[in-house]
Records
---
Amino acid sequence: MFLLPRRPARIETERLTLRQPVMADFRDWSSLRAESAEFLIPWEPAWAHDHLSRKGFSNRVWWAQRAITGGSALPLFLFRREDGVLLGAITLDNIRRGPAQSGNLGYWIGAAHARQGYMAEAIAGVVHHAFGRLDLSRIEAACLPENAASRGLLEKCGFKYEGVAQSYLQINGRWRTHVLYAALRADRRGRTDAG
């Protein structure tokens, strides 16, 4: 079977260009991750020993291209359109078709760019793309219960609290419980203050 190459993944928002990573992004990505390590590490899976290496990044680029081509994920970098600065990344991962039509959302932003509305804008763009272009019905997200910034961001973006998952992910080397949120394409649930 012959597969035609897909157009590179790209989403435009008011201030951002979201696009798949390429090898030319390595220096900006590794610098931003290194500068933001103290800000990011408490909320992320433990970094591999080669996390900031060119080889580690090459593996990320290869995985991103394969995932996009295969339709299993949409990993995107966030660039500020006015100056082309890399701000962070967002990934719609574990895309499930058939009766589920859903995916999981994950994201990070560099410390210097946090709390400026960029990630809310990126989430809105990815959710719109997922519901419109990808025809998904449900997008799920999870975060640590004490991550008030991430919980507030998800709620601001229309995600609703759905519950708790015990020992959901290994974060910074430990199995951690997460709170679960979801956005639905046709959401009639109303606001909830649970959790």
Note: Strands lie at 10-12, 16-19, 74-80, 86-96, 102-109, 138-143, 160-171, 174-184.
---
Amino acid sequence: MDNSLTKRAAVVDTLPTVFGYLGIARASGFSTITVILMSVIIYAGSAQFTTVSMLAAGSPIASIVFATFMVNSRMILMSTTVAPYFKKDSLGKGMLIGTLLTDESFALAMNKLNYTNGKMNFSWFNTKNIISYSTWVIATMIGALLGNFIEDPKKLGLDFANVAMFIGLLYLQVKSDKDLNKLLQVIVVLLTLVLTYISTIILPASLVIIAVTLIGCILGMVIKHVFF
């Protein structure tokens, strides 16, 4: 990763992350076209897993919509963080950026800022988003077509691909961020892990991510201003 914000740079920067999308999952009894359309329309891994589970359990549509909104509500915070970098761009471009924003693309963008002195542009961000979106849809198609031939993807380690990608992005973020104290970053990471563990015990799965995000941000800010 370097300080270039061209389309070519976006392709190079995004390629290492696309492998995280290639973990093959079984179609959970749904038709191939249904699974593919879910990725095309919903485009949110955690929300899709939630939707599939609730549909399989026969949950009401209203409950599924609400659960999906809660799981993806963290995107409000991410979009708010990204929005200031596109103030000079049109509303349409801003909506396109927000529509294709994911955890992975957000993490990659935040890491990129460490190399560009806090600069960002539409060309780089949109190219990265399109590559990620296309890869997700293609990976879903592969998973839907081949899932029936792979009884247990975990035996091949495919379930760990996405986790490994985020670990790599986290490492790069901590390593390249020159504005925040390294010890502070490590403390916040460990704090987040503890909060996640506790939240999975006491909260519904749909609330874990947003709760940990809000509490982690607040505690991180307090620790930064009090001790650093």
Note: Residues 36 and 141 are 6 Å apart (CA to CA).
---
Amino acid sequence: MAENRIGLLRWRVQARRHPSAFLLAAQLLSLVLYPIFDETRSSGRVLFGALGVVVLMLAVWVVNRSPAKVWVAWLLAAPALGLSVLSVVLANDTLLVVSSALEALLYLYAASSLIAYMLGDHRVTADELFAAGATFTLLAWGFAYAYFVCQAWYPGSFTGALRPGEPRTWLELLFLSFTTLSATGLGDILPLSSPARVLVMLQQFAGVAYIAVVVSRLVGLTMLRATK
């Protein structure tokens, strides 16, 4: 019993020291699980909703640890969570789209708060390195939800090498987001409508700015500390 309490205490200490690491781990874990559930229908929607709830709560938690106002995050997270659950229970696609729009705003807000947290410190810590990875995944998820909303509002906004006439799955949109943000540009998922292309251009700009401002600064501070 005492060992369990000590172990739990250690986890709490690590969570307070490295909240960004837990968010990054949750995002990467969901990446591993998505291919398993992506081909399912109703059960997949329930599992996606459950994963989204966990990641949303972690996103709010990370915002609370950063300079951002936590009430803004909860203002986005609370209705997003409620609408996500209702969309699964009622099988209502409209509620799912509205929930996705709120989740996109929440992820982008959490990413901006982590960027402010990293830029506000002149000493590179382990949590800031985890925050750099978590920020990248938050940006990727945020734009993926934006793509999902765009596809719902403007049918035919995206096409792909496989089943070009069908809507893109969530995993395909997330894949597009990662390849765009990382400037990989594999080209098997393409934007067709003007709103979709604008979103892709905005994400390309965000990816370049993230590397130029945040990552280069962390690398520079790390090298400066090593020379001292």
Note: The beta strands are 158-160, 189-191.
